[in-house]
Design a protein that fits this description.
Blueprint lengths: L2 H6 L7 H4 L3 H6 L5 H6 L16 H9 L4 E4 H4 L2 H14 L4 E6 L6 H11 L3 E4 L7 H7 L3 E5 L2 H10 L3 E5 L14 H11 L4 E4 L1 H7 L2 H5 L4 H44 L1
Parallel strand pairs: 1-2, 2-3, 3-4, 4-5, 5-6
This protein binds flavin mononucleotide.
The site of flavin mononucleotide has 19 residues, from strand 2.
Protein backbone atom coordinates (compact mmCIF):
# COMPACT_ATOMS: atom_id res chain seq x y z
CA UNK A 1 0.00 0.00 0.00
CA UNK A 2 1.41 3.38 -0.93
CA UNK A 3 2.52 5.75 1.81
CA UNK A 4 -0.01 8.41 0.88
CA UNK A 5 -2.93 5.98 0.98
CA UNK A 6 -1.74 4.54 4.28
CA UNK A 7 -1.64 8.03 5.80
CA UNK A 8 -5.34 8.33 5.18
CA UNK A 9 -6.22 4.97 6.70
CA UNK A 10 -6.05 4.58 10.44
CA UNK A 11 -6.03 0.81 10.68
CA UNK A 12 -5.17 -1.51 7.84
CA UNK A 13 -4.30 -4.86 9.26
CA UNK A 14 -2.55 -6.33 6.27
CA UNK A 15 -0.13 -3.39 6.23
CA UNK A 16 3.15 -5.38 6.01
CA UNK A 17 5.01 -3.50 8.74
CA UNK A 18 2.33 -4.52 11.25
CA UNK A 19 1.91 -8.10 10.24
CA UNK A 20 5.40 -9.24 9.56
CA UNK A 21 7.49 -7.42 12.17
CA UNK A 22 8.05 -8.96 15.58
CA UNK A 23 5.63 -8.02 18.33
CA UNK A 24 8.08 -6.02 20.47
CA UNK A 25 9.03 -4.00 17.38
CA UNK A 26 5.38 -3.21 16.78
CA UNK A 27 4.97 -2.34 20.43
CA UNK A 28 7.94 0.04 20.36
CA UNK A 29 6.90 1.68 17.14
CA UNK A 30 5.79 5.29 17.50
CA UNK A 31 2.50 5.64 15.71
CA UNK A 32 1.50 9.05 14.50
CA UNK A 33 -1.57 9.06 12.34
CA UNK A 34 -4.50 11.42 12.09
CA UNK A 35 -6.39 9.00 14.35
CA UNK A 36 -3.74 8.97 17.10
CA UNK A 37 -3.71 12.77 16.88
CA UNK A 38 -7.51 13.00 16.99
CA UNK A 39 -8.10 10.54 19.82
CA UNK A 40 -4.79 10.67 21.67
CA UNK A 41 -4.38 6.87 21.67
CA UNK A 42 -1.00 5.16 21.32
CA UNK A 43 -2.03 2.86 18.45
CA UNK A 44 -4.48 3.71 15.66
CA UNK A 45 -6.73 0.81 16.66
CA UNK A 46 -10.30 1.25 17.88
CA UNK A 47 -12.40 -1.19 19.85
CA UNK A 48 -15.81 -1.93 18.31
CA UNK A 49 -19.02 -1.33 20.22
CA UNK A 50 -20.73 -4.44 21.55
CA UNK A 51 -24.41 -4.43 22.50
CA UNK A 52 -24.88 -6.50 25.63
CA UNK A 53 -21.30 -6.59 26.86
CA UNK A 54 -19.40 -3.47 25.70
CA UNK A 55 -19.12 -2.12 29.25
CA UNK A 56 -16.59 0.24 30.82
CA UNK A 57 -14.40 -2.64 32.06
CA UNK A 58 -14.01 -3.88 28.49
CA UNK A 59 -13.26 -0.35 27.26
CA UNK A 60 -10.71 0.22 30.03
CA UNK A 61 -8.91 -3.05 29.31
CA UNK A 62 -8.64 -2.14 25.61
CA UNK A 63 -7.50 1.41 26.47
CA UNK A 64 -4.82 -0.06 28.77
CA UNK A 65 -3.22 -1.78 25.77
CA UNK A 66 -2.72 1.58 24.04
CA UNK A 67 -5.62 1.08 21.62
CA UNK A 68 -8.79 3.18 21.89
CA UNK A 69 -11.54 1.72 24.08
CA UNK A 70 -15.29 2.03 23.50
CA UNK A 71 -18.09 2.16 26.05
CA UNK A 72 -21.32 1.03 24.40
CA UNK A 73 -23.95 3.45 25.72
CA UNK A 74 -26.78 0.95 25.22
CA UNK A 75 -25.04 -1.26 27.80
CA UNK A 76 -25.00 1.63 30.29
CA UNK A 77 -28.69 2.13 29.49
CA UNK A 78 -29.33 5.46 31.22
CA UNK A 79 -27.55 8.84 31.18
CA UNK A 80 -26.79 8.56 34.92
CA UNK A 81 -25.22 5.12 34.51
CA UNK A 82 -23.27 6.32 31.46
CA UNK A 83 -21.79 9.15 33.50
CA UNK A 84 -20.82 6.70 36.23
CA UNK A 85 -19.33 4.31 33.66
CA UNK A 86 -17.25 7.07 32.04
CA UNK A 87 -15.86 8.00 35.45
CA UNK A 88 -15.13 4.37 36.37
CA UNK A 89 -13.37 3.90 33.02
CA UNK A 90 -11.29 7.05 33.56
CA UNK A 91 -10.18 5.75 36.92
CA UNK A 92 -9.29 2.34 35.50
CA UNK A 93 -7.16 3.56 32.61
CA UNK A 94 -4.81 6.28 31.53
CA UNK A 95 -5.63 5.35 27.94
CA UNK A 96 -8.29 6.87 25.76
CA UNK A 97 -11.84 5.79 25.01
CA UNK A 98 -15.05 6.93 23.32
CA UNK A 99 -18.73 6.31 23.82
CA UNK A 100 -20.78 4.54 21.15
CA UNK A 101 -24.37 5.55 20.39
CA UNK A 102 -26.09 2.83 18.37
CA UNK A 103 -28.97 4.92 17.15
CA UNK A 104 -31.37 2.08 16.41
CA UNK A 105 -31.76 1.47 20.16
CA UNK A 106 -34.47 3.63 21.76
CA UNK A 107 -32.51 5.40 24.44
CA UNK A 108 -32.54 9.10 25.46
CA UNK A 109 -29.67 10.01 23.11
CA UNK A 110 -29.93 13.77 23.70
CA UNK A 111 -29.37 13.36 27.44
CA UNK A 112 -26.60 10.85 26.78
CA UNK A 113 -24.98 13.38 24.43
CA UNK A 114 -25.01 16.02 27.17
CA UNK A 115 -23.09 13.57 29.39
CA UNK A 116 -20.43 13.06 26.70
CA UNK A 117 -20.15 16.83 26.25
CA UNK A 118 -19.89 17.38 30.00
CA UNK A 119 -17.28 14.63 30.37
CA UNK A 120 -15.49 15.56 27.10
CA UNK A 121 -15.56 12.00 25.83
CA UNK A 122 -15.46 11.51 22.04
CA UNK A 123 -18.59 10.11 20.47
CA UNK A 124 -19.02 7.32 17.95
CA UNK A 125 -22.46 7.19 16.35
CA UNK A 126 -23.57 4.13 14.41
CA UNK A 127 -26.37 2.26 12.72
CA UNK A 128 -28.64 5.17 11.76
CA UNK A 129 -28.68 8.85 10.79
CA UNK A 130 -27.01 10.99 13.45
CA UNK A 131 -28.57 14.21 12.02
CA UNK A 132 -30.58 15.20 15.11
CA UNK A 133 -27.47 15.16 17.27
CA UNK A 134 -25.14 16.92 14.83
CA UNK A 135 -25.97 20.60 15.60
CA UNK A 136 -25.25 20.11 19.30
CA UNK A 137 -22.09 18.08 18.59
CA UNK A 138 -20.72 20.75 16.27
CA UNK A 139 -21.78 23.61 18.56
CA UNK A 140 -19.79 22.11 21.44
CA UNK A 141 -16.84 20.91 19.35
CA UNK A 142 -17.12 17.35 20.65
CA UNK A 143 -14.94 14.88 18.74
CA UNK A 144 -17.32 12.83 16.63
CA UNK A 145 -16.81 9.68 14.59
CA UNK A 146 -19.56 8.03 12.56
CA UNK A 147 -19.59 4.33 11.70
CA UNK A 148 -21.31 3.33 8.48
CA UNK A 149 -21.86 0.12 6.56
CA UNK A 150 -22.42 1.90 3.22
CA UNK A 151 -19.89 4.27 1.69
CA UNK A 152 -22.61 6.79 0.80
CA UNK A 153 -23.54 7.07 4.51
CA UNK A 154 -19.89 7.61 5.43
CA UNK A 155 -19.60 10.34 2.78
CA UNK A 156 -22.74 11.97 4.16
CA UNK A 157 -21.40 11.90 7.73
CA UNK A 158 -18.13 13.47 6.57
CA UNK A 159 -20.14 16.23 4.88
CA UNK A 160 -22.10 16.77 8.10
CA UNK A 161 -18.78 17.37 9.88
CA UNK A 162 -17.67 14.02 11.33
CA UNK A 163 -14.02 14.15 12.46
CA UNK A 164 -13.47 10.61 11.16
CA UNK A 165 -15.58 7.85 9.67
CA UNK A 166 -15.53 4.11 10.15
CA UNK A 167 -16.34 1.76 7.32
CA UNK A 168 -17.68 -1.64 8.29
CA UNK A 169 -17.13 -4.00 5.38
CA UNK A 170 -19.09 -7.10 4.50
CA UNK A 171 -16.61 -9.29 6.41
CA UNK A 172 -17.20 -7.35 9.61
CA UNK A 173 -19.60 -8.82 12.10
CA UNK A 174 -22.61 -7.35 13.85
CA UNK A 175 -23.37 -4.39 11.63
CA UNK A 176 -24.99 -5.17 8.30
CA UNK A 177 -26.68 -3.59 5.35
CA UNK A 178 -28.00 -5.33 2.26
CA UNK A 179 -25.96 -2.79 0.26
CA UNK A 180 -22.70 -3.46 2.09
CA UNK A 181 -19.53 -4.10 0.07
CA UNK A 182 -16.33 -5.94 1.06
CA UNK A 183 -14.04 -3.88 3.30
CA UNK A 184 -11.27 -3.20 0.81
CA UNK A 185 -13.70 -2.10 -1.92
CA UNK A 186 -15.58 0.22 0.45
CA UNK A 187 -12.31 1.51 1.82
CA UNK A 188 -10.73 2.43 -1.51
CA UNK A 189 -13.98 4.05 -2.63
CA UNK A 190 -14.29 5.98 0.64
CA UNK A 191 -10.67 7.18 0.45
CA UNK A 192 -11.38 8.72 -2.94
CA UNK A 193 -14.39 10.62 -1.67
CA UNK A 194 -13.63 11.49 1.94
CA UNK A 195 -10.97 13.79 3.36
CA UNK A 196 -11.32 13.04 7.06
CA UNK A 197 -9.56 9.89 8.37
CA UNK A 198 -11.19 6.62 7.34
CA UNK A 199 -11.03 3.70 9.75
CA UNK A 200 -11.43 0.20 8.35
CA UNK A 201 -13.09 -2.42 10.49
CA UNK A 202 -12.27 -5.98 9.71
CA UNK A 203 -11.54 -8.13 12.72
CA UNK A 204 -11.35 -11.12 10.40
CA UNK A 205 -8.00 -9.85 9.13
CA UNK A 206 -6.90 -8.69 12.55
CA UNK A 207 -7.76 -11.94 14.22
CA UNK A 208 -5.94 -14.11 11.73
CA UNK A 209 -2.93 -11.94 10.95
CA UNK A 210 -1.96 -10.16 14.14
CA UNK A 211 0.80 -11.75 16.24
CA UNK A 212 -0.58 -13.63 19.25
CA UNK A 213 1.06 -11.53 21.96
CA UNK A 214 -1.04 -8.50 20.99
CA UNK A 215 -4.01 -10.49 22.19
CA UNK A 216 -2.46 -12.51 24.98
CA UNK A 217 -0.27 -9.92 26.72
CA UNK A 218 -2.50 -6.93 26.21
CA UNK A 219 -5.29 -7.63 28.68
CA UNK A 220 -7.93 -8.38 26.05
CA UNK A 221 -7.92 -12.10 26.61
CA UNK A 222 -10.65 -12.60 29.26
CA UNK A 223 -13.33 -10.75 27.32
CA UNK A 224 -12.31 -12.24 23.99
CA UNK A 225 -12.07 -15.80 25.30
CA UNK A 226 -15.46 -15.54 26.94
CA UNK A 227 -16.97 -14.13 23.76
CA UNK A 228 -15.42 -16.95 21.76
CA UNK A 229 -16.53 -19.66 24.20
CA UNK A 230 -20.09 -18.35 24.40
CA UNK A 231 -20.38 -18.09 20.61
CA UNK A 232 -18.88 -21.55 20.00
CA UNK A 233 -21.23 -23.08 22.60
CA UNK A 234 -24.25 -21.28 21.17
CA UNK A 235 -23.44 -22.29 17.57
CA UNK A 236 -22.74 -25.91 18.60
CA UNK A 237 -26.07 -26.08 20.45
CA UNK A 238 -27.86 -24.53 17.46
CA UNK A 239 -26.17 -26.97 15.09
CA UNK A 240 -27.31 -30.01 17.09
CA UNK A 241 -30.80 -28.61 17.49
CA UNK A 242 -31.16 -28.06 13.74
CA UNK A 243 -29.58 -31.44 13.02
CA UNK A 244 -32.08 -33.08 15.36
CA UNK A 245 -34.96 -31.31 13.58
CA UNK A 246 -33.61 -32.51 10.25
CA UNK A 247 -33.50 -36.13 11.49
CA UNK A 248 -37.08 -35.87 12.80
CA UNK A 249 -38.32 -34.35 9.53
CA UNK A 250 -36.59 -37.09 7.54
CA UNK A 251 -38.21 -39.78 9.75
CA UNK A 252 -41.67 -38.22 9.25
CA UNK A 253 -41.06 -37.97 5.50
CA UNK A 254 -40.12 -41.66 5.35
CA UNK A 255 -43.21 -42.65 7.33
CA UNK A 256 -45.40 -40.55 5.08
CA UNK A 257 -43.89 -42.09 1.95
CA UNK A 258 -44.41 -45.60 3.38
CA UNK A 259 -48.03 -44.73 4.13
CA UNK A 260 -48.55 -43.35 0.62
CA UNK A 261 -47.03 -46.53 -0.85
CA UNK A 262 -49.36 -48.67 1.29
CA UNK A 263 -52.42 -46.67 0.23
CA UNK A 264 -51.48 -46.95 -3.43
CA UNK A 265 -51.42 -50.77 -3.25
C1 LIG B 1 -21.85 -9.25 19.25
C2 LIG B 1 -21.68 -7.92 18.57
C3 LIG B 1 -22.38 -6.82 19.03
C4 LIG B 1 -22.22 -5.58 18.41
N1 LIG B 1 -22.90 -4.51 18.88
C5 LIG B 1 -22.73 -3.30 18.31
C6 LIG B 1 -23.42 -2.17 18.81
O1 LIG B 1 -24.19 -2.23 19.76
N2 LIG B 1 -23.19 -0.99 18.20
C7 LIG B 1 -22.35 -0.86 17.15
O2 LIG B 1 -22.20 0.24 16.66
N3 LIG B 1 -21.69 -1.92 16.65
C8 LIG B 1 -21.87 -3.12 17.22
N4 LIG B 1 -21.20 -4.21 16.73
C9 LIG B 1 -20.31 -4.01 15.57
C10 LIG B 1 -18.86 -3.89 16.00
O3 LIG B 1 -18.64 -2.80 16.85
C11 LIG B 1 -18.01 -3.69 14.75
O4 LIG B 1 -18.36 -2.51 14.12
C12 LIG B 1 -18.27 -4.81 13.78
O5 LIG B 1 -18.13 -6.02 14.49
C13 LIG B 1 -17.35 -4.77 12.59
O6 LIG B 1 -16.05 -4.87 13.00
P1 LIG B 1 -15.24 -6.23 12.94
O7 LIG B 1 -14.97 -6.45 11.52
O8 LIG B 1 -14.04 -5.88 13.71
O9 LIG B 1 -16.09 -7.31 13.55
C14 LIG B 1 -21.34 -5.45 17.32
C15 LIG B 1 -20.62 -6.56 16.87
C16 LIG B 1 -20.79 -7.78 17.48
C17 LIG B 1 -20.00 -8.95 16.96
Amino acid sequence: MSGSLFNKVAVVCEQPSVCYTRYHEVQDMKWKTRITDLLGCKYPILQGAFAGFGNWEFAASVANTGAHGMITASVSGTPEKLKEDIRMCREATEGTFSVNFTLTHSIPWNEMLEICIEERVPLETAAYKPDDLVPRIKETGLTWIHKAARVKDAIRAAKLGADAVIIVGLEGTGFKSSEQLPTMISLVWALREIDVPVIALAITLWRTQHPGPVIFEGGLIPAMVWTLLVSITAFTALYFLLFNYRVLIKRDEDELNNLKALLRR
